[in-house]
Amino acid sequence: MPAGPDEPAVSPALLMPEAADQPKAIEKQPELSRPLPPLILHALEKVPDQDAKAILSMAISRTTFGFGPDPETAKVLAQTEMHEEECRLKGFQASLQNREEQNKRDHEFRKKKLNHQTGLTVAVLAVTVGGIGGGLFLSVTGNQALGNPVLIASFTVMTTLAGKFLASRDKD
Questions:
Q1: In Å, how far are 122, 158, 168 from 162, measured between CA atoms?
Q2: For the stretch 1-35, what's the b/e string if a residue is b when 16 or more beta carbons lie within 10 angstroms of its beta carbon?
Q3: For residues 25 and 117, what is the distance between their CA atoms, to the nearest angstrom?
Q4: Are 32 and 44 in contact (CB under 8 A)?
Q5: How many other CB atoms are found less than 10 A from the CB of residue 141?
Q6: Helix 50-61 crosses helix 38-45 at what angle (to 10 degrees)?
Q7: Which of 4, 24, 117, 144 has CA 20 to 30 A from 152's CA?
Q8: Whether this model's pTM surpasses 0.70
């Protein structure tokens, strides 16, 4: 209703107080922590509801333009991931060091075992060759009852030893 010349004009804010606050709420947008890119601003302009527009602009401004955490949080996350990777690398290096030390111990053990087996083989071979020589000597000198069994036993041990030696060569 239009006011007459002697009547004071009634503002619409007095008639509907919430309607008067709405344009102020639209005009007063929340403080943005960083400026929004033009592409996002253009998309926000298309939102018809002003309250939704204000909420969206505030939510987008608090993140990295809606696609991840803010820079400080991203920095902390990156440092955490770097620390985790460094710890993993140190653990892997320690594991490799332990394996290398274990391999050295295994190698030393195999060398000692091989040296021991070689010593035993040489001793058995020397006794066998000595038995063959002694058996031949006894057989030639006339004591065939003792020389022949010694000679046969020595040949048997020698052939068994040769078979084991050849079988071990085939494994490698």
A1: 12, 6, 10
A2: eeeeeeeeeeeeeeeeeeeeeeeeeeeeeeeeeee
A3: 94
A4: no
A5: 9
A6: 160
A7: 117
A8: no
The residue count of the chain comes to 172
Return the structure tokens found at 24. Answer: 């102020």
| Alpha-carbon span 69 to 77, nearest angstrom | 9
Tens of pLDDT, residue by residue over 71-106, are 788 888 889 999 999 999 999 999 999 999 999 999
Can you tell me the distance from the alpha carbon of 117 to that of 10, in angstroms, rounded to the nearest whole number? 116
**CA 55 to CA 67: how far, in whole Å?**
17
d(CA 158, CA 128): 6
**148/65: higher pLDDT:** 148
